[in-house]
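Hi, here's the filled form for the chain we discussed.

Project: internal
Contact: R.S.
Residues: 174
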Amino acid sequence: MLRLKTFALSVLFGAFVTCAAAQQQLATSRLTDDIQVSGQILPEHMEALKNQGIRTVIDLRPDGETPDEPSSSALAQAARQAGLQFGYVPVPLSGNVPSAAVDTLGELLARVPQPVLMYCRSGMRATKTWALAEASRPGGLDAAAILQHARDAGRPVDSLSEQIAQRIAARIQH
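And the returned structure, exactly as it came back:
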């Protein structure tokens, strides 16, 4: 009987720890008042994100990048169940952010409810893609502010300075 009670308490404690871990605040970095980035999230994080005030989650990690990552469809379903919007803008790990992904993210950010959490494996691709989308956005931040926001979030994108400047110049000309 004592073993059964010990086992039951162990199961209950394990369930409590699992639920508490899923509900605790995720390690996110704030780029702006309405845009945050993080590394990989899991379906069980969606309720905690909602409780933190996030209204939209955007996945920038291509499906199948690693065998242990949840698919975008599994995350989209979990987001919907938690009452969150979900977007998928896959950016390859190559280091270069494709212009199509920048444009897609910019369009998505313009129309989804905010605050937004964007994620990838580490949060760096999400930050880079945001920086280029922000540089392209009419009325967006200037280059110094974009670079500073990324630095303040602990994800510097100084290597994109030239691309950011080019995108800002192009938006000003239009």
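Let me know if anything looks off before we file it.
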